[in-house]
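dumping this here before i forget
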Amino acid sequence: MAKKGLSGIALARQRNTMGKNHTSPEITDRFIEGLLGRLREGTEPPEGRIAIGVYHQKYYTLDRDGYVWGFNGEKMKYLSLPRKKAPRVRIHKLIKDPSTGEIINKEVEINVLKLMEKEFGPYFPGYSKARLHPDEYMLIPADDNWENLSWKNLVFVSKKEYRELGTKKALVKMFFELCPGLTDQEVAEKTGVSRVHVWRVRKELESEGLLKTQLFEQVSSVLGFNVTSLHVRVYTYFMENGADKTNLEIARELFPQQAEQAITNTAKKLLTAPIVRIKKRLIEKGVLEESPLQKHRDEVINLLKNKGSNHLTNQQIADQFGLKKEQVDNLSRTLISKKKGSV
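structure:
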C-alpha cells in the first residue's frame, strides 16, 4: 500500500517500483519528467538567471525573458545572421586544444531560442506534445517576432502545420474579418487550425489595430450596423484621408489584389460597395465632408449628357468644378455602360 500523504511524484515513483513488474529507474525518471512537464506547461517560470557558460570563474547567464547577460553583468545584443531566424549571441569559452593540450580562449556562437527551449521548455504551451514527438514540433515566438524570445511569447507548434500556415493563416484571417466576435476555439473548430496558430493570427490582427474590441464598438456606433475588420479599415481610411479620391481609387489602395481582378463594371461595383456604403453613412452623420464630385455630381452628369450641344471636353468639365479629369472620365464611362445596358 502507498503511504498516505505522499506527493504525486512520490506515488508515481513508488507505483513504478512495486511488485513483480519492476520498472527500471530510467523509465521511472522519464515518467516523472513527463509528469513534471504537464504540471508546469503554460505556467510562469521562476524569476532569476540561469548560468549557461563560465569564463575565468565568471558566468554568462540567461533570464526567462530571453536575454543573455555577459560575465560582467551587461545585457548582450542579439546577432541577426543571414538565413537564420533565431537570434544568436557570441560568448567566450576556455577550452582545451586537442592538438596541444593547452587551454585556449574561443568565441562560440549560441542559438538563444535553443537555450530557452533547454532551460525553460517545460513551461511553454505545447511542451507535452513536443516532448513525445521532438522531431515533429518546433519552438517559435507566438507573434512571429524573432526579437521577442520572452517566456510569454514562446510556444511549441507542429512543424508541418507551421509550414502550411501560409494558406491556413489566410483562412483564419477571413473568419476573424467576417465574424470578429468569434473566440479562438470557435475559429479553430471552423478552420481545423490549432488554437495556438489561431491565437498567433489574432495577435497579428490586434497589432495592426484590426481586432481591438473598443475600436469595433466605436466604428459600429458611428455607422449604425455590425462591422467587420473590412469596415474598420475603410472607416479608418476616411478618418485619415477624407473623401477626395474616387471610390475605385480608394479600393485600389485598400484592396490592391482584389482591384486587379475586378475587370468588369459589375466586379468593380461589388468591390466599391462597402466604400460607397460607409462614405454615405459618414456624410449623413456629418462626420465626413462631401467630395467636390459628390457635391456637383448631378451637374457633371447633365453636362456629360449634353456634350453634343455644349461641346465641352472632360478636362473642361473637370476644371469647371475643381475635379480631376479621371473622375469625370469614370463618370462618363458609367453613363455609357448604363446607356448600352438599356438598349
